[in-house]
Design the sequence.
């Protein structure tokens, strides 16, 4: 069956004074109905840019320079801005790190929800309000029939993020893009929000793309995970495999730094150096200056993704034709 989201050979570029910077350089992945795909990597790896490209939020001087993005088969990377706005609101829900960017502080929660519901669904005001109350209940807001007339500032950060999730799902979207949805929240609330997002995917068959730097969140939530590095996918596969037996040397280092949901931000203690700036991505494998396994070919030839059991890995060690072997 057709995936909900299909991204093929996506390239995103930014004009800068130093020339064209390639933020995303040949990224391909799919997300099926009801599946949660985690996208993980250090800051600057291209996770958020990938999400922004899918929802058509790459603004000049950035642009989609190549590839295809399809939503349930429909090309959405080249549709007019007006049509994309409609698709974005109705068929793709968005959840960002800071709930206050998605909520208007001057409007009651219920008004924001009913307005969004009525924009996308053909419902009269009382029916839209009823649906808003049901949605607030579904995302775990206690006594929703009373809280619906509160203002955003009357809610805690975690409760506000639940409201944002209610907004994101109110038109029953096929796809939800969540970019660091728990990063701004108290640790004790993070797990609840993650559980909620996971349950929504399961109950509604929604495909979820979850962007995070937090491997703990990935391990708790996702069916599959894509590890990004310098605008490419280093490894993608079932979360069990990638977390427990990562293949790519970068993924190995990242998994060695898994924090728990109760822990701090990941520190890549096992990987020396830092991810290169976009203006200075090394030739060959972008990871080679940091890789303990690098050999001649890595400095010259860029590794393409290769199937390796249930995973895909872009590393010359896993190319059967290579002279070196994955030990
Ligand atoms: Fe390391 Fe080479 Fe694999 Fe890149 S291709 S991760 S440098 S072994
Ligand atoms: Mg980001």
Sequence:
């Amino acid at each position: 069956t057709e995936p909900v989201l299909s991204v093929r050979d996506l390239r995103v570029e930014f004009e800068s004074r130093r020339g064209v910077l390639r933020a995303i350089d040949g990224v391909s992945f799919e997300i099926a109905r009801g599946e949660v795909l985690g996208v993980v990597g250090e800051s600057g790896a291209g996770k958020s840019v990938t999400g922004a490209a899918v929802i058509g939020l790459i603004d000049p001087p950035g642009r989609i320079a190549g590839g295809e993005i399809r939503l349930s088969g429909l090309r959405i990377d080249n549709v007019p801005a007006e049509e994309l706005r409609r698709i974005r609101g109705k068929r793709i829900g968005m959840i960002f790190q800071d709930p206050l960017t998605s909520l208007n502080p001057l409007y009651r929660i219920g008004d924001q929800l009913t307005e969004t519901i009525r924009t996308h669904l053909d419902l009269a005001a009382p029916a839209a309000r009823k649906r808003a109350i049901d949605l607030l209940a579904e995302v775990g807001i206690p006594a929703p029939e009373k809280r619906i007339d509160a203002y955003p500032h009357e809610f805690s950060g975690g409760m506000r993020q639940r409201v944002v999730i209610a907004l994101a799902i109110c038109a029953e979207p096929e796809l939800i893009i969540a970019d660091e949805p728990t990063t701004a929240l108290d640790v004790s609330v993070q797990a609840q929000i993650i559980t909620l997002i996971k349950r929504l995917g399961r109950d509604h068959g929604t495909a979820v793309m979850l962007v995070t730097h937090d491997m703990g969140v990935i391990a708790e939530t996702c069916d599959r995970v894509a590890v990004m590095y310098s605008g490419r996918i280093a490894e993608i596969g079932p979360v069990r495999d990638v977390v427990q037996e990562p293949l790519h040397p970068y993924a190995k280092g990242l998994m060695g730094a898994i924090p728990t949901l109760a822990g701090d931000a990941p520190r890549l203690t096992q990987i020396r150096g830092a991810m290169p700036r976009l203006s200075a991505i090394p030739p060959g494998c972008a990871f080679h200056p940091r890789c303990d396994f690098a050999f001649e070919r890595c400095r010259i030839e860029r590794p393409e993704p290769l199937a390796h059991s249930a995973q895909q890995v872009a590393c010359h060690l896993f190319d059967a034709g290579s002279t070196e072997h994955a030990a």
User: Anything to note?
Assistant: The chain has one domain: 5-106+151-318.
